């Protein structure tokens, strides 16, 4: 009887020392791009599992963007894609379920750029100019890229602007405008934002980009 009792105690001791199962670690990479000229939204997402070398995985229920199932690109990277036409919303939600049925959400909020300009169709290389747009000012993690193109000169001049004024206004000094040769330029903007979050064992990173319509500017 004593031997049986000792065996039971030993079993309980070993079972209590059994390490708890570590929760799985996931990482999610998302990308959203909107082309205003075409009115199209393109979204991509890749989910990875493991540590320290995470591998692409496919959730049992697939990946959702804005509540709709994304298609899986048949590559080793297991990238989910979605392409739709229509307007651009300020909220962009990716969601999926893990093996336990728990739903994970990753949302990016973003303000589009509608009307924009210098207030005049002509700017001077010797004078500063004020640029304004309709929409929210640039927030943390955002950048505005000005893409100037001159077909006659076969030139493209990008300008990255980080604005911390808290207003939808950018003051261009004359030294910056002096980078542009005299002539007619087309201008369009790319507003970009980087979003990061970590919740319930999921580290998520997202990039969202908004490409505006083009405008024509005369540089003197």
Task: Give a short summary of the structure.
9% of the residues lie in helices and 50% in strands. With 220 residues, the chain is mainly beta. The strands form three sheets. Strands 1, 2, 3, 6, 7, 11, 13, 14, 16, 17 and 18 form an eleven-stranded mixed β-sheet that branches.
Description:
By secondary structure, this protein is mainly beta. The protein has helices at residues 2-16, 174-177, and strands spanning 26-35, 40-49, 55-57, 64-65, 68-69, 71-72, 80-85, 91-97, 103-109, 116-117, 122-123, 129-133, 142-150, 155-161, 169-172, 183-199, 202-211, 215-219. The strands form three sheets. Strands 1, 2, 3, 6, 7, 11, 13, 14, 16, 17 and 18 form an eleven-stranded mixed β-sheet that branches. Strands 5-4-8-9 form a four-stranded antiparallel β-sheet, with no helix packed on it. The longest helix has 15 residues, at 2-16. It is elongated. Mean pLDDT is 88; it is low at 1-15.
Can you give keywords for this protein?
single chain; 220 residues; mainly beta; eleven-stranded mixed β-sheet; four-stranded antiparallel β-sheet; 18 strands; 9% helix; 50% strand; elongated; disordered N terminus
